[in-house]
Amino acid sequence: MANRLTKIITRGGDKGETSLGDGTRIAKDDPHVELLGEIDELNSWIGVVLAHLSEGEVAATLLGVQHDLFDLGGALSFPGSPLLSDAHVLRLDEAASRLNEDLPPLKEFILPGGAPVLSWLHIARTVCRRSERALAGFLRQNDQAGAALAYLNRLSDYLFIAARYEARRAGIEEVLWKKQHSISGSEV
Protein backbone atom coordinates (compact mmCIF):
# COMPACT_ATOMS: atom_id res chain seq x y z
CA MET A 1 0.00 0.00 0.00
CA ALA A 2 1.36 3.38 -0.96
CA ASN A 3 1.78 6.14 1.60
CA ARG A 4 -1.43 8.14 1.59
CA LEU A 5 -0.36 10.78 4.08
CA THR A 6 3.10 12.11 3.54
CA LYS A 7 2.67 15.03 5.96
CA ILE A 8 0.49 15.28 9.03
CA ILE A 9 1.33 18.91 9.84
CA THR A 10 0.28 20.84 6.74
CA ARG A 11 -0.54 24.25 8.26
CA GLY A 12 -3.47 24.35 5.81
CA GLY A 13 -5.98 24.84 8.62
CA ASP A 14 -4.17 27.59 10.49
CA LYS A 15 -6.65 30.22 9.28
CA GLY A 16 -9.84 28.35 10.22
CA GLU A 17 -10.43 26.41 7.03
CA THR A 18 -9.99 22.78 6.07
CA SER A 19 -10.17 20.74 2.89
CA LEU A 20 -12.68 18.09 1.99
CA GLY A 21 -11.46 15.01 0.17
CA ASP A 22 -12.24 16.60 -3.18
CA GLY A 23 -10.08 19.66 -2.36
CA THR A 24 -12.98 22.00 -1.55
CA ARG A 25 -11.98 24.46 1.20
CA ILE A 26 -14.60 25.13 3.88
CA ALA A 27 -14.67 26.78 7.31
CA LYS A 28 -13.80 24.53 10.22
CA ASP A 29 -17.07 25.47 11.93
CA ASP A 30 -19.15 24.55 8.87
CA PRO A 31 -21.87 21.97 9.71
CA HIS A 32 -20.21 19.60 7.23
CA VAL A 33 -16.98 19.64 9.26
CA GLU A 34 -18.97 19.39 12.49
CA LEU A 35 -20.61 16.22 11.14
CA LEU A 36 -17.23 14.74 10.23
CA GLY A 37 -16.09 15.47 13.78
CA GLU A 38 -19.18 13.78 15.24
CA ILE A 39 -18.51 10.62 13.22
CA ASP A 40 -14.85 10.69 14.25
CA GLU A 41 -15.75 11.11 17.93
CA LEU A 42 -18.23 8.24 17.70
CA ASN A 43 -15.56 6.02 16.18
CA SER A 44 -13.17 7.01 18.97
CA TRP A 45 -15.67 6.10 21.70
CA ILE A 46 -16.23 2.75 20.05
CA GLY A 47 -12.45 2.35 20.18
CA VAL A 48 -12.59 2.99 23.95
CA VAL A 49 -15.26 0.30 24.28
CA LEU A 50 -13.15 -2.14 22.25
CA ALA A 51 -10.07 -1.41 24.35
CA HIS A 52 -11.97 -2.53 27.46
CA LEU A 53 -14.16 -5.29 26.05
CA SER A 54 -13.14 -8.90 26.07
CA GLU A 55 -13.38 -10.83 22.84
CA GLY A 56 -16.85 -11.86 21.74
CA GLU A 57 -19.72 -11.08 19.45
CA VAL A 58 -20.03 -7.43 20.50
CA ALA A 59 -16.30 -6.83 19.96
CA ALA A 60 -16.43 -8.42 16.50
CA THR A 61 -19.45 -6.35 15.48
CA LEU A 62 -17.98 -3.10 16.80
CA LEU A 63 -14.72 -3.67 14.93
CA GLY A 64 -16.79 -3.83 11.73
CA VAL A 65 -18.68 -0.71 12.84
CA GLN A 66 -15.40 1.17 13.21
CA HIS A 67 -14.57 0.38 9.59
CA ASP A 68 -18.08 1.39 8.48
CA LEU A 69 -17.78 4.71 10.31
CA PHE A 70 -14.40 5.35 8.73
CA ASP A 71 -15.97 4.65 5.33
CA LEU A 72 -18.86 6.99 6.18
CA GLY A 73 -16.46 9.79 7.11
CA GLY A 74 -14.57 9.22 3.88
CA ALA A 75 -17.78 9.34 1.82
CA LEU A 76 -18.88 12.52 3.60
CA SER A 77 -15.54 14.08 2.63
CA PHE A 78 -16.38 13.63 -1.06
CA PRO A 79 -19.60 15.52 -1.84
CA GLY A 80 -22.03 13.40 -3.83
CA SER A 81 -20.62 10.05 -2.70
CA PRO A 82 -23.11 7.37 -1.61
CA LEU A 83 -23.27 6.98 2.16
CA LEU A 84 -23.28 3.31 3.19
CA SER A 85 -25.86 0.81 1.95
CA ASP A 86 -28.86 -1.23 3.00
CA ALA A 87 -26.46 -4.16 3.57
CA HIS A 88 -24.72 -2.14 6.31
CA VAL A 89 -28.08 -1.56 8.03
CA LEU A 90 -29.10 -5.21 7.66
CA ARG A 91 -25.86 -6.39 9.24
CA LEU A 92 -26.57 -4.23 12.31
CA ASP A 93 -30.20 -5.37 12.47
CA GLU A 94 -29.09 -9.00 12.47
CA ALA A 95 -26.38 -8.38 15.09
CA ALA A 96 -28.87 -6.61 17.37
CA SER A 97 -31.41 -9.42 16.98
CA ARG A 98 -28.82 -12.02 17.98
CA LEU A 99 -27.88 -10.09 21.13
CA ASN A 100 -31.47 -9.33 22.05
CA GLU A 101 -32.71 -12.95 21.76
CA ASP A 102 -32.01 -13.97 25.34
CA LEU A 103 -32.30 -10.62 27.11
CA PRO A 104 -35.21 -10.19 29.49
CA PRO A 105 -37.85 -7.68 28.46
CA LEU A 106 -37.40 -4.16 29.77
CA LYS A 107 -39.68 -3.25 32.65
CA GLU A 108 -37.85 -0.12 33.78
CA PHE A 109 -35.63 2.51 32.20
CA ILE A 110 -31.92 1.73 32.33
CA LEU A 111 -29.41 4.30 33.53
CA PRO A 112 -25.84 4.33 32.19
CA GLY A 113 -23.53 2.66 34.67
CA GLY A 114 -22.81 -0.58 36.46
CA ALA A 115 -19.32 -0.99 35.06
CA PRO A 116 -16.95 1.16 32.98
CA VAL A 117 -17.49 -0.72 29.71
CA LEU A 118 -21.27 -0.44 30.10
CA SER A 119 -20.97 3.31 30.68
CA TRP A 120 -18.73 3.67 27.63
CA LEU A 121 -21.25 1.78 25.50
CA HIS A 122 -23.87 4.29 26.65
CA ILE A 123 -21.56 7.22 25.91
CA ALA A 124 -21.02 5.80 22.42
CA ARG A 125 -24.82 5.47 22.10
CA THR A 126 -25.42 9.12 23.01
CA VAL A 127 -22.63 10.32 20.70
CA CYS A 128 -24.21 8.16 17.98
CA ARG A 129 -27.56 9.90 18.53
CA ARG A 130 -25.84 13.29 18.28
CA SER A 131 -24.14 12.15 15.06
CA GLU A 132 -27.49 11.02 13.74
CA ARG A 133 -29.01 14.45 14.42
CA ALA A 134 -26.08 16.15 12.68
CA LEU A 135 -26.42 13.84 9.69
CA ALA A 136 -30.16 14.48 9.45
CA GLY A 137 -29.50 18.21 9.23
CA PHE A 138 -26.71 17.68 6.70
CA LEU A 139 -28.88 15.48 4.47
CA ARG A 140 -31.63 18.13 4.39
CA GLN A 141 -29.08 20.49 2.82
CA ASN A 142 -27.25 18.02 0.53
CA ASP A 143 -28.15 15.37 -1.99
CA GLN A 144 -25.83 12.58 -0.85
CA ALA A 145 -27.80 9.34 -0.89
CA GLY A 146 -27.44 6.16 1.05
CA ALA A 147 -28.52 4.41 4.17
CA ALA A 148 -26.30 6.29 6.61
CA LEU A 149 -29.14 7.81 8.62
CA ALA A 150 -30.78 4.41 9.12
CA TYR A 151 -27.36 2.97 9.94
CA LEU A 152 -26.73 5.48 12.75
CA ASN A 153 -30.25 4.93 14.05
CA ARG A 154 -29.67 1.16 14.21
CA LEU A 155 -26.19 1.62 15.66
CA SER A 156 -27.53 3.58 18.64
CA ASP A 157 -30.07 0.80 19.24
CA TYR A 158 -27.32 -1.80 18.89
CA LEU A 159 -25.12 0.02 21.44
CA PHE A 160 -27.99 0.05 23.96
CA ILE A 161 -28.65 -3.65 23.43
CA ALA A 162 -24.90 -4.38 23.59
CA ALA A 163 -24.69 -2.69 27.01
CA ARG A 164 -27.54 -4.90 28.27
CA TYR A 165 -25.94 -7.98 26.70
CA GLU A 166 -22.50 -7.26 28.17
CA ALA A 167 -24.01 -6.59 31.62
CA ARG A 168 -25.70 -9.97 31.53
CA ARG A 169 -22.62 -11.73 30.15
CA ALA A 170 -20.47 -10.27 32.96
CA GLY A 171 -23.09 -10.83 35.67
CA ILE A 172 -23.42 -7.10 36.34
CA GLU A 173 -26.76 -5.84 37.52
CA GLU A 174 -28.17 -3.11 35.29
CA VAL A 175 -28.76 0.26 36.95
CA LEU A 176 -32.49 0.87 36.79
CA TRP A 177 -34.23 4.21 37.10
CA LYS A 178 -36.29 4.29 40.28
CA LYS A 179 -38.78 7.04 40.89
CA GLN A 180 -38.07 7.11 44.63
CA HIS A 181 -34.45 8.15 43.93
CA SER A 182 -35.56 11.15 41.89
CA ILE A 183 -36.62 14.42 43.46
CA SER A 184 -39.70 14.22 41.22
CA GLY A 185 -40.59 10.95 42.97
CA SER A 186 -40.53 12.42 46.45
CA GLU A 187 -43.02 14.67 48.06
CA VAL A 188 -41.75 18.23 48.12
Question: How would you describe this structure to a colleague?
Answer:
There is one protein chain. The chain is mostly helical and 188 residues long. The chain has a single domain (26-185), classed as Cobalamin adenosyltransferase-like (Hypothetical Protein Ta1238, Chain: A, Up-down Bundle). Helix content is 56%, strand content 5%. The protein contains five helices and four strands, in the order E-E-H-H-H-E-H-H-E. The protein has helices spanning 31-51, 57-76, 86-100, 116-141, 148-170; strands at residues 17-19, 25-27, 110-111, 175-176. A hairpin with a 5-residue loop joins strand 1 (17-19) and strand 2. The model has no long low-confidence stretch (mean pLDDT 86).
Which secondary structure elements does this structure contain, and how are they paired or packed?
Elements: E1 17-19, E2 25-27, H1 31-51, H2 57-76, H3 86-100, E3 110-111, H4 116-141, H5 148-170, E4 175-176
Antiparallel strand pairs: 1-2, 3-4
Total domain count? 1
Major sheet: 2 strands, antiparallel
Through-space gap between termini: 66 Å
CATH architecture descriptor text:
Up-down Bundle
The residue ranges in which pLDDT falls below 50 over 5 or more consecutive positions are none
CATH class: Mainly Alpha
- How much of the sequence lies in strands comes to 5-15%
